[in-house]
TrEMBL record:
Membrane topology, from the record: Multi-pass membrane protein
Residue intervals passing through the bilayer: 88-107, 119-148, 160-179
InterPro entries: Peptidase_S54_rhomboid_dom (IPR022764), Rhomboid-like_sf (IPR035952)
Protein name (Swiss-Prot/TrEMBL): Rhomboid family intramembrane serine protease
Keywords from the UniProt entry: Hydrolase, Membrane, Protease, Transmembrane, Transmembrane helix
GO terms, molecular function: peptidase activity
GO biological process: proteolysis
Subcellular location: Membrane
Alphabetical list of Pfam families matching this protein: Rhomboid
Enzyme Commission number: 3.4.21.-
Species whose genome carries this gene: Faecalibacterium longum
SUPFAM superfamilies assigned to the protein according to its UniProt record, in alphabetical order: Rhomboid-like
Length: 189
């Protein structure tokens, strides 16, 4: 029996996030703030473009990291197997970009970091399992429960959680699932 690197995109995402967390602790949070959190800044700043994508790797604490990574490691590998490594990587990058741009446009005074948007993209993607043309009841139930919880939290809970970006991640996962749900062809890893 040998150890397999069975889900290269998800495992690499996990390892990069872990490295970013350690780096943030080593630098007293400097790298987390300046490289792995997205916030409105000058378009002339080259680090802005790194932050647009890198914010999904940053986490504010071990609890934040563990909560995201546990779900990522459970939901991610089956989605990578189903859709392929390259399409999933593109979905992750597009979700990071969209959430980063929306954060800068809609919430200019706050920073965003963490893999929650990616996790919710994967959750909605997983809820589309078995999609064959109709709207899966599982997707409707997950969307209703998930959106309901996020809207409730936006209205009634005051914390540092970016609930709107969770919704953005969920929408990205739903769109990704529908776009990639056509006739199954052999996908390149």
């Amino acid at each position: 029996m040998s150890v397999q690197y069975n889900s290269p995109v998800i495992l690499t995402f996990f390892l990069l996030s872990l490295g970013v967390l350690f780096l943030g602790q080593y630098t007293g949070g400097w790298t987390t703030t300046h490289l792995f959190s997205v916030y409105r800044s000058s378009l002339k700043d080259p680090l802005f473009y790194i932050r647009l994508f890198g914010h999904v790797l940053g986490h504010g604490s071990w609890d934040h990291f563990l909560n995201n990574m546990l779900l990522l490691l459970v939901v991610g590998p089956p989605m990578e197997e189903k859709y392929g490594s390259l399409p999933l990587l593109k979905g992750i990058l597009l979700t990071a970009l969209i959430s980063g741009i929306l954060q800068c446009a809609l919430f200019p005074r706050t920073a965003l970091l963490g893999a929650s948007g990616i996790v919710f993209m994967l959750i909605m993607l997983a809820s589309l399992s078995g999609f064959s043309g109709g709207i899966p009841v599982t997707m409707l139930l997950v969307a209703a429960l998930y959106l309901g919880q996020q809207v409730y939290d936006i209205i009634f809970v005051r914390d540092n959680v970016a609930n709107f970006m969770h919704i953005v991640g969920g929408v990205c996962g739903t769109v990704f699932g529908y776009v990639n749900a056509g006739p199954r062809r052999k996908r390149k890893h």
